[in-house]
Specification:
The chain is of the alpha/beta class. The protein is about 35% helix and about 25% strand. The chain has helices at about 20-30, 45-60, 110-115, 175-185, 200-210, 220-225, 225-235, 240-245, 255-265, 290-300, 310-315, 320-335, 335-345, 355-370, 380-390, 400-405, 425-440; strands at about 10-15, 35, 65-70, 85, 90-95, 105-110, 125, 130-140, 140-150, 150-155, 160, 190, 215-220, 235-240, 270-275, 305-310, 370-375, 395-400, 415-420, 445-455, 460-470. α2 packs parallel to α4 and α7 (about 225-235) crosses α9. The chain is elongated, with a radius of gyration of 24 Å.
Amino acid sequence: MYRQRFTKIVATLGPATSTPERLRALFEAGADVFRLNFSHGTPEDHKQRVDLLRALEKQYKHPIAILMDLQGPKLRLGKLAGGPMELKKGQKLRFDRDAEPGDAKRVPLPHPEIFKAARPDGILLIDDGKVRLRITAHSEETIDTVVEVAGTISDRKGVNLPNLIVPLSPMTAKDRKDLDYGLSLGVDWVALSFVQHAHDIAELKKLVAGRAAVMAKLEKPAAIEHLDEIIEQSDGIMVARGDLGVEMPPEAVPPLQKRILASCRVLGRPAIVATQMLESMVHSPTPTRAEASDVATAVYDGTDAVMLSAESASGDYPIEAVTIMDRILKSVEADPLYRRLMDASRRAPEATTADAISAAARQCAHTLSAAAIVTYTNTGSTTLRAARERPDVRILCLTPNLDTARRMTLAWGVHPVRTEDAHSFGDMVARATRIARQEKIARQGERLVITAGVPFGTPGATNILRIAYV
């Protein structure tokens, strides 16, 4: 299953894609990573999908990454006595902690954390920003507001607080239970919602204890204030543009996407651009030209992966969505401008042996027109360094660890293969050339640039570079 592209595709699974036939079709169409959204579905649903994916992995003899996405805390209104209620601009409305159903003057808000975070001129957004209210006064029990953008509110609608930092852990009791279950199923990545600080990721990492890689979802403006710390603490990043777009002005999201991706590149963390990428394909067999351009922009920005949500989980055309996304990625990567952008955005390597070797490997591969860069790795760090260089050839990741092979399917340009570690210099070359041919990455007579560490099998010891003929 060697992909003829560098950028990866993440497909969310759901009711539309839960049969063996649909999963196989998604994989063959180009999906590299499969997302399980724990905001929906039952534990039995998720287990069935994991079992089917692992069977698919064995059938194709290629690692498949499974990303579990934790729901995180959901801030919602309480109940309204008379059903949906129309709010008019300039109308005054009080929120309180009383559980009694609300009316035209007061609405229950069962989240004490919001009352702690409230301050004058704070903003409350309801129903994905369709209704906007400004705080005029507050106490420990009440929040008085005035309606700035009119609209309809109803029971249990979501609440966002774009300019308030809510003292709320991103890990709910449900998330902890889901996490234990997901880890027992053997997921490869865990994505955390509602991240506001680096210590949110540190908390999750303690719970995961190395059993999966940890990804931060950037969907809160507060997270942007601690961007570099969050990226450094995480194993990967998801740019959740839909939620960012609710809590920030729409015009702020595109430059922020570029900034996040650039920071991820510097720190060598895989990044996913997500939300509404081919939204119209939930019900249409083709995307809009604007959506195709949006996907292309993320690729030009240097993302590792792009993600489908409802398009593949519950849409009418999940296979077509993956197929057209695959075509867009290939089209962008064939554009000479894409290569110029990748080269222009490259940073100088850090003053470490591993970084120097990775930079030299990219330069050698380019100068010699090599077929691929081969990285021997235990943890994946060597492979991620190679991917950060954005070489103009694929990266063949050879690792003895199946967990590492699966996680690396998310990284830009990486084709992971599980194999024994090299035992000697001769074995290192022979194994790399044999697998490169088997995986159809290189042909006889072509060259490979190989990086590894001596002593062989020692994590973090990348210190040699070898050029070999196939």
